[in-house]
From TrEMBL:
This is Kinesin motor domain-containing protein. InterPro entries: KIF11-like, Kinesin_motor_dom, Kinesin_motor_dom_sf, P-loop_NTPase. ATP binds at G95, Q96, S97, G98, A99, G100, K101, S102. The lineage of its organism: Eukaryota, Sar, Rhizaria, Retaria, Foraminifera. It comes from Reticulomyxa filosa. GO terms for biological process: microtubule-based movement; mitotic spindle assembly; spindle elongation.
């Protein structure tokens, strides 16, 4: 676990087509951020007011072309690893409406009729669930093999040994399936309740956490 208990990361989303059209109609000048390195970005300001560009330094900067996988590797996976080590882990996603919080955390919005989704677009939450279950499965499998090896060495009766192996492995399979279902049910419940609405971009930032 890193010595830093809190990390602050920033992700920039690409400009949408509607924003590009609006800029053209209003004659606005595009002033994209300048990524200096993995931790620093320079943000342009209104030239009419003679404001100098603002340099922002965070623990990590994700440019607009960053992928969902990169966000998970830097944000989600360390949190799952920390949780498995016994630490409390929380991801707090903060930003203005339309900034891309839902996309980063969950992936693209889909309707009930859309059953398939490109896994490359999965957000941090579904990737964390998959990674967590993978880690738990690996740990359970290692434990089952160790118990099986001990039984083989200690028990001379083949029939008794066979029964014990079944008792050792069956509960772990049931437990893994139960955890998986609970995760998916919670995830689907949130996605069902969260409806996409057309809202005016407000000045007060909103947030989500997991």
């Amino acid at each position: 676990m890193s010595e830093e208990s809190i990390r602050v990361l920033g992700r920039f989303r690409p400009i949408s087509n509607s924003e590009k059209r609006h800029a053209e109609e209003e004659g606005l000048i595009d002033m994209p951020p300048v990524y200096l390195d993995l931790q620093s970005v320079r943000l342009a300001r209104d030239n009419e007011n003679s404001q100098k560009p603002y340099k922002c330094t965070l623990d990590r900067i994700f440019p607009s072309e960053s992928t969902q996988a990169e966000a998970f590797i830097q944000i989600g996976r360390p949190m799952v690893d920390a949780a498995l080590e016994g630490y409390n882990a929380t991801i707090f996603c903060y930003g203005q409406s339309g900034a891309g919080k839902s996309f980063t955390m969950f992936g693209p919005e889909t309707s009930d009729k859309e059953r398939t989704i490109d896994k490359e677009l999965n957000g941090i939450v579904p990737r964390c669930i998959e990674y967590l279950l993978q880690c738990l499965t690996e740990r359970t499998s290692m434990m089952s093999r160790a118990v099986s090896a001990t039984n083989d060495n200690d028990d001379d009766d083949d029939d008794d040994n066979e029964d014990e192996e079944e008792d050792d492995t069956t509960p772990s399979i049931i437990k893994e399936w139960k955890v998986y279902v609970e995760f998916i049910q919670i995830y689907k419940s949130y996605k069902k309740k969260k409806k996409k609405k057309k809202v005016f971009i407000n000045q007060t930032a909103s947030s989500m956490w997991t």
